[in-house]
Here is the input.
Amino acid sequence: MPLLKNNVLVPDTWINVEAEGALPETGDVIVPFARLLKEWGELSKRNTRLGLRLSNTDKPEALSAFLPGLSLIVLPFPAFNDGRAYSIARSLREMGYAHELRATGNVLPDQLQFMLQVGFDAFEIGKRFPLETWAKASRQMSLAYQRGLFRRGAEAEIWTERHTDAEPWLEQPHAG
Amino acid sequence: MYRYDEFDHQFVRERTNQFRNQTERRLSGALTEDEFRPLRLMNGLYLQLHAYMLRVAIPYGTLSGRQMRQLAHIAEKWDKGYGHFTTRQNIQYNWVKLEDAPDILDALAEVEMHAIQTSGNCIRNVTTDHWAGAAADEIADPRPVGELLRQWSSLHPEFSFLPRKFKIAVTGAPHDRAAVKVHDIGLRLHKSDAGETGWEVIVGGGLGRTPMVGVTVRDFLPQHELTGYLEAIMRVYNLYGRRDNKYKARIKILVHEIGAEKFKSEVEAEYARRPHPTTEVEERELARIAAYFAPPAFEKLPRWSASFEEAKLGSPDFARWAKNNLGPHRADGYAIVNISLKPEGGIPGDATAGQMRVMADLAERYGNDELRVSHAQNIVLPHVRKDDLFAVWQALVKAGLAAANYGLAGDIIACPGLDYCALATARSIPVAQSISRKFADSKKQDEIGKLKINISGCINACGHHHVGHIGILGLDKKGEEFYQITLGGSSAENASIGTILGPGFAGHEVADAIETILDTYLKHRQDGEEFLATYRRLGARPFKEALYATA
Here is the structure.
């Protein structure tokens, strides 16, 4: 499955592992949450990166203890209109998770910008739409009213923009 | 009134362009109908029985003359010359072509309007008291908060694919004209003894298949915490609201199933857990918005207007209209004019392009350039000098807009029903028309007094029949339309859900049944008692006996 990151396709080097069965000797693995809970001790000793596959009924706050040990979290969209993963993603970012957050399942260009705004930065996109459709979809809106979204320098926050210079004594002098 | 700044303009323009692109992709076949549906719905475009329907947002029901004129222009250019004002303070065009929709959205953007989130499983247009800013009993104008929430909820990335649609209503007055207890979230302003104001947050009310009165989760939330707290509620709902059954997906079911206390503690935990940036920006934004809603400079006028009193003496028709259709204004010498869109035998909420222009003219000439759409599908001119009322009335008479039945039996709320709607199981409009004809006699209507009759054409309850003093629900029984009658509902501060009276009636029997109910009321009422009070005192029994005794 091609993986979209920063508007380019990159190879996916991660190995998906099921709830049961042996772990591969080497390589970065993605495990389901139940296995992470059961085998945390062993998993955290591996010399490779660790990824987690979350279901959208898992509670994000249950992850807080594990977050520092994770390099990838995969969240599913069983259908594009099942919006739970948006809240989970934003929660994880608010909890300080800073590594890859990947959307999988029914991921479509018309939802891409929303996904970026709540903190997703990698997308399993299939082959249906050309790359330029995705690139265009990522910057449909240049503004957002909401504050505290996870942005990569893309959209301006309207409320913040409106009020940054509302009080002159808060202005910082420019160097040079 | 609120005016867009450069950011608001750009936001709506970009959104309109995005939808134009999506529509082109649909017309070219690049998008399937299944993929296009949620996109068009988030822009207010439905596919109905005969054509596309476009629902345009009228945020918190407030319009300028210029905006009303543009609505008239759209009705003429892209529809059949009329529009339908809805129970959520919006307007719907029932005969729109898909390829025209982007042009209509452009025309709306020209006058600072849009159709964003008038459908879909997202936060819908925020509604409020249609007398906001004018009502004599108001603590503060709720529209600044309405505008703040409009902005906050617009294309909210986290809450655009909720389990189900989400409706927020706001009121700034103790007498609740915004039905806040039967919304997903209702906000009600309170003033403490120390003179501070705060918001009561009510969650989990709603109508539809499972009518419920909401529960209070916060008694007195400071204004600047509103968006943060609402995000916590929305997140709990988005994560834990049911998605397995469309009919159990509203937040009221979640609140009901896990219980009010548990729901409240989940929200408080979420609110406490999230990072809290300072709310200085929200406070400044609210202050910026509030400045647009500063009350107009009312003239210093005597409370008593000689010309108004004289005109009433000279014209009994005007006197009757003035008695029924005016509301008490906070400023001396002014009145709130309620224009009934319920002429005898008419379609509740419909207005022609010509009528829209007349109302726009009147607003500009006599009404501080403001109009409101009420959730009872009427239009309000909130600030009219008593000295001008006679002239306003004369213009309304000429335009067929002077029905003197505001708040009376003829002021019926009805959904579009099976004449338009793809979900309906029965027609609503003909039933409304037959009742309205039955009570055409103005003396009888006046004698009956304040009454809310609500008609829905299916159990989704868009006509809010559960909270009508008399509610009528149209159903389908083996291919025949029949109508169930409920009594005792209310959407006001003493909200209640009506009770089903007994077996239903055929369409042609409904008006007679309503007459029997009201005759029973007139027989039993005590001095000055309105219908709802009599029903609450006596219960259903006398009405049942009268209605089913001879059946």
